[in-house]
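Dear Dr. L.,

I hope this message finds you well. Following up on our conversation about the binding site, I have prepared a predicted three-dimensional model of the protein together with zinc ion. For your records, I am including the exact sequence and ligand specification that went into the calculation, followed by the structure tokens. Please feel free to forward this to your student if that is useful.
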Amino acid sequence: MIKGLTLLSTRIKQKVNSALLTERCVSCLAPTTDHGLCAACRSDLPANTPACPRCALPLPDSATGLCCGDCLRDPPPFARARIPWRYEFPVDRMIGRYKYQGQRKYGRPLMAGLARHLEEALAREPDCRPEALIAAPMHPARRRQRGFNQAQDLAEYLGRALDLPVLRGRVHRTRRTPTQRGLDRAGRLANLNDSLTLTGEPPASVAIVDDVVTTGATARALASLLKSAGTQRVELWALARTPAPVSPRPHPAVSPPAEQWPDWR
Ligand SMILES: [Zn+2]
Ligand SMILES: [Zn+2]
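The resulting structure of the complex is given below.
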């Protein structure tokens, strides 16, 4: 009897352990051990190449190795942007679930992929390694609304993965800016004007961390602020970059219709 109970409890333990150890891909539910995304789904993510080497704006194949028109006309205050994916399906859906629904399991595969991408880049270019990371700031009211600042969450993750210090509580939005969504770059810069303040002296080289870069206005404003306070070199690190808007036609759809989304749980 006791022997039977011991055997049963061992079997239950084995089942519980194997359930805990078998992680499922967030997209196709195949077993995976790679931060929640299987190798096939990871290779399907929309790589941001070719892209402007300065601001990571997605460019057509014919523009490989060239800077975008914006950076030629008005070079940004950051030296370069490292952004491995385009804000297209399924990256847009994954970030949306992470950011707006607080489902961290959808952000984790992207965070791990970005850390790997940066690790490889910094091994090739060790002089570009920043002294510290700083997250793109969010107004406290919006942070309370959402429950967390996804850029800070990402900066903390990258800080641990790359062994870099994270500057906390040094940049503040002094007034609540209306949401940046739906504004063009000029609108966003005006929206951000005078809304950021920095406390203390920043290090000589800093990487700004954000989840999605749309027009780059937030990064430009923060990089300018850091440089005016003494930082000499700024990089911009993010998960995804949106394509340039096509005008005067409406912005192209970046995702297939809802019925084609995988059944993400
Ligand atoms: Zn998969
Ligand atoms: Zn550019």
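In brief: The chain has nine helices and ten strands.

With kind regards,
A. P.
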